[in-house]
Amino acid sequence: MLGPVILAASRSDLMRRVVSAAPVTRPVVDRFIAGETVDGTTPVIQDMADSGLEVTMDVLGEDITDRSAALHARDAYLKLIEALAPLGLGARAEMSVKLSSFGQALRGGHDLALSNITTVVEAATEIGTTVTLDMEDHTTVDSTLAIHRTLRERFPETGAVVQSYLFRTEDDCRTLAASGARVRLVKGAYKEPARVAHQDKGEVDKAYVRCLKTLMAGDGYPMVGSHDPRLIAIAQELAVRAGRKLDAYEFQMLYGIREEEQRRLAAEGHRMRVYIAYGTDWYGYFMRRLAERPANLAFFLRSLATRG
């Protein structure tokens, strides 16, 4: 199977050098990574807003090995907030944060990540926006959800991400939906063992629909993270059944993927938020996009061929 191979390659320094140096890589990366700097990415954010789309911003960078690097990651988000402030977009431009980049995996990392993310959420609140906590591998779920609960005591709009391939996620969705939380539902992009996660794509999809039913019927705000046309249609049907208005849930897709569908949903009045990643440390993000569904490899290459 290609998925585990691609994920292994994402952790290989040798493969990082090979992929980064390949002539075919840069044009593909440029399509799916919005830029390497805040200043280079701000025009993309404004263009999205002008076309009726909303955004969530991810400053790329993980594998933090010391506290100074975690502080550097925090400061990168504070710089992003400074750049967003004059745009006046409010919650139309929020942020997504991986707590690993804020030191979660270090000794005492839970408290360190909580301290760092609190500073960022405070700054985001000042400009009228919020933060969603991305979910990573299964070993981080308890810590991430605990930090989410703590943040929501002061900042109730703070969002969380859950992954349908984990067995525990249906219970997590029930808890989050009852609490009124903003929840982004995705399938999952990490290689997880069979003892904690569905391994079959069909089972992952079924779990996604079950989780989506719970979120749509609950008291929270569902964020449908999917490019799958079938799941998007199911989400619309479930929203109607639950009596949700178009502003009571949203769709989310990755920058550079199914752009026509993004514009179509926005034109129909749906809230359509685009996940925009930027920064120089694009390699891990890029490889996970391939590993999520190895057929994405062909998709990326087709996208490259048709870009012009």
Automatic annotation (TrEMBL):
Its cofactor is FAD. It catalyses: L-proline + a quinone = (S)-1-pyrroline-5-carboxylate + a quinol + H(+). The keyword Oxidoreductase applies. This is proline dehydrogenase. It comes from the Bacteria. Residues 45-299 form the Proline dehydrogenase domain. Keywords: FAD, Flavoprotein, Nucleotide-binding, Oxidoreductase, Proline metabolism. Its EC number is 1.5.5.2.
